[in-house]
Design goal:
There is one protein chain. The protein has two helices and eight strands; from the N terminus they run E-E-E-H-E-H-E-E-E-E. With 133 residues, the protein is mainly beta. It has one domain. The strands form two sheets. A six-stranded mixed sheet has the order 3-5-6-7-8-4. A two-stranded antiparallel sheet has the order 1-2. A hairpin with a 2-residue loop joins strand 5 and strand 6. The longest helix has 9 residues. The radius of gyration is 15 Å and the shape is globular. 23% of the residues are buried.
Length: 133
C-alpha cells in the first residue's frame, strides 16, 4: 500500500496521481501490469468523446495489452491503483496518438481523446502529481 508522499506502507484514503515524467514508482507500474485488461468497457462519456474526436471505431480496443501502450499516469486511492492513462500511435495515422483513461479494476474506459504524437507536455502542472521522495 502507498502512504502519503508516495511511499509504500500505511493505508490511506487520499487519492494520489503519479506521472511518468515526474515520478512513477516501479512497484506501482508492476501492480498495474498485474491487472487483466482483456474486457474493456466504454462508458457513455468515452463513447461520446470518441465520436467528438472522430476516432474510428476500429481504433477503440476491446482489450488492451499494456506492453503495447505507454503508461503515462496512475491514479491511486487507498494505496491501490484506481485509474490509468495510456497512449499509443493510432493505426490510421501514426502522427496521432489515441489516449485512454481507464478505471482499475473495473476496466471502464472513462474517456478517450486524440493527441498529436509530438505533444511534449509543456503545460504539465507538476504540482498536481506526487513528487519523487
Amino acid at each position: 500500500m502507498l502512504k502519503a508522499g508516495g511511499r509504500w506502507g500505511t493505508n490511506t484514503m487520499a487519492m494520489r496521481v503519479y506521472h511518468r515524467d515526474i515520478y512513477l514508482p516501479a512497484e506501482l507500474v508492476a501492480a498495474v501490469q498485474a491487472h487483466d485488461f482483456a474486457m474493456l468497457r466504454y462508458g457513455k462519456h468515452a463513447r461520446f468523446a470518441a465520436l467528438d474526436d472522430c476516432v474510428p471505431p476500429r481504433e477503440l480496443p476491446r482489450s488492451l495489452l499494456l506492453a503495447d501502450w505507454a503508461l503515462i499516469q496512475v491514479e491511486t486511492t487507498a494505496g491501490r491503483a484506481s485509474g490509468i492513462l495510456v497512449r499509443r500511435p493510432m493505426q490510421c495515422d501514426p502522427r496521432l496518438h489515441l489516449v485512454l483513461a481507464i478505471g482499475v479494476p473495473d476496466m471502464l474506459v472513462r474517456t478517450v481523446w486524440v493527441n498529436r504524437a509530438d505533444d511534449n507536455h509543456r503545460s504539465l502542472d507538476r504540482k498536481k502529481y506526487v513528487q519523487a521522495p
